[in-house]
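okkk here we go again. third time trying to get the zinc ion bound version out, last two times i messed up the smiles copy paste (missing a bracket lol). double checked this time i swear
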Amino acid sequence: MTGSSASSRKVLSKIATNRLQKELVEWQVNPPSGFLHKVTDNLQRWVIEVYGAQGTIYAGEKYQLQVDFPEHYPMEAPQVIFLHPAPLHPHIYSNGHICLDILYDSWSPAMTVSSICISILSMLSSSTVKERPEDNDRYVKNCRNGRSPKETRWWFHDDKV
Amino acid sequence: MDSEDDMHDANDAESVDDDFYSGETAMDSDDGDAADYEFIDNDSDDSNDLVSHRSQQNYTILNETDIQLRQEDDITKIASILSISNVAAAILLRHYNWSVSKVNDEWFADEEKVRRVVGLLEEPRPLPNAKELTCGICFEVYPNDSMRSAACGHPFCVTCWQGYISTSINDGPGCLTLRCPDPSCGAAVGKDMVVSLASHDDREKYRRYFLRSFVEDNRKVIVLSFNFLIIDLRFFFISPLIQNGVLLLVVDYAVDFIVGGGTFDVTCRCSYSFCWNCTEEAHRPVDCDTVSKWIMKNSAESENMNWILANSKPCPKCKRPIEKNQGCMHITCTPPCKFEFCWLCLGAWSDHGERTGGFYACNRYEAAKQEGVYDDTEKRREMAKNSLERYTHYYERWATNQSSRQKALADLQQMQSVHLEKLSDKQCQPESQLKFITEAWLQIVECRRVLKWTYAYGYYLPEHEHAKRQFFEYLQGEAESGLERLHQCAEKELQGYLNVEGPSKDFNEFRMKLAGLTSVTRNYFENLVRALENGLSDVDAHGGTSRTGGSRSLGAGSSKGRTSRSKGTASRSSGSRNIDDSGHWSCEYCTFANAKSATVCQMCQQRR
Ligand SMILES: [Zn+2]
Ligand SMILES: [Zn+2]
Ligand SMILES: [Zn+2]
Ligand SMILES: [Zn+2]
Ligand SMILES: [Zn+2]
Ligand SMILES: [Zn+2]
Ligand SMILES: [Zn+2]
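finally!!
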């Protein structure tokens, strides 16, 4: 996520603001385990720390997720990427883009940041190898101009991992 | 009369004195009854054939209402067979690509599984029984009665439903498989709910997706060469085809095509014609293979041919550039030159048409070549140039007829929108009495199309089939000149009745003439198309009908005096099998006039 595309983003709608404030309150009361949201006054961009779960190959490691919310959140999915360095994972590209269907086609407005986090953690936890997607280099090269993962036509990897 | 030969001979005998296309002569001598004027095929088998050929349409054009009715029929059918609501039936049908039988089979094989897959609950669940409910999207609390849910009972507020539905509709046809927003649920959101919550515009979009899905999902979808998604087999969208590169989301008309019944040509209600088989524009009498070869050839040669498409040529007499802005080939240079010439061959018009008894040779490549239009000095260079030159000849005529057709289409529209009313006013004729003009123009448009494709036909007609070529070129020449006559009458003569103060005395005669020409031309072209589709099977392979032009005209009339007037091919077709005056010898197989010194025919390589 580059600064330029973030600044071109439209401000949150009233519905989106209300909903995010509710999510934030809920998060503070009941945070998903393994995550830490460093609250700032920027409601439109959340940066969340992810802790690799015990007993998985990411145990003891710490990563950062950046979540950007569109004007019409939650009707539109947020953009979720890993900040550098992104975990080595067969569905996570070195530029931080994540191949996970609920972030794109399968998004539903009844999902929340919290439910996204849980899905991502479960995706990490089920991996048995630390490696990049096969098409990593090609994909990352294509994204060089700061293209959002939401503009990608995702062909989802099998969902076992 | 049982054989075609008899028929033609009889025709020749009966009508030696009026040329097939000499409309005026016929008008003058007859009392002007269009029925008399129209050529009536004497061979009864043949004419029946023609009638059945025309009436046997193997396709139906469906408009939106027709499609909708069929869709509703299927929905009602499934609803009553499975005893479910129409909304549920529509969800099922859409999931199984609108196949009634597939829905039936799957449902009765494993209803539970089908329900799970498409999201149809057996027992609808009501909203939770509480005074106030929290919306699963905005997390606001609302009184129970302002919440909605799909059959699953998951509550969302009206505003969130509206946003959810609107987002989905604007995302595309995926809205037809909308599910409950709850990620763990999957209950289908039916058409009734969408329609009740969507905005007016979104409702219309949804309705179109719904309709379109019936047409598209129903059938195998194929991708055409020009990147359109088109529906094969039974339904076919017209609008995407004619909208340059843009796939419209609008159901215009669809075509219900029954494969295996006759020809592939389909004419939509919007008057666009295309070939069902290859989806190119309609191309009778040539087959799909020839069309695709020809189109490939055109794109391969497109650079060479660009100059041909320029609609300007120098006047053959005064050399000033002349813009062709009319549909017919008869061009008159601007004053003071006023030279009348033929756009195709740049020859004097006086060598064409009526004055020479309808003889029209500018369609013949050999003739053009022999008359030095393509000045060839050195034999060797000529041979190398030959293939491109030959192609150029056919391509130019193909393209010219194409643009003439475009022009005629535009004229037809202009006629219908402006001129008919004016004419009706000027000539004190009700517009209903002016249908003959529209018919004439429709005929011109169709004939230009056929004629255009005859040049692709001619290009691929093997060189060595001389008899066929000769016959073909004769037929094509007649077609050109006949159509020219019609086109000119509809284009130029009509002007004389438009730009007048009061009714013209001879308007009725004009009507007779134009209607007559239309009908004669229609007949001729229908026969031409059939003859070409039969591969000119009347003609024996080797000179069996060396004077084919004389003894077998298509349709009606005689070929009075044509033999003596054919200039370009005279040396080849003189019928002499031996050495003629100039010392040439005529090939026994193909009649080509070879130089005295040659021992092998230049055309067909047969020994002398
Ligand atoms: Zn539900
Ligand atoms: Zn709501
Ligand atoms: Zn149409
Ligand atoms: Zn075709
Ligand atoms: Zn001139
Ligand atoms: Zn000419
Ligand atoms: Zn020969």
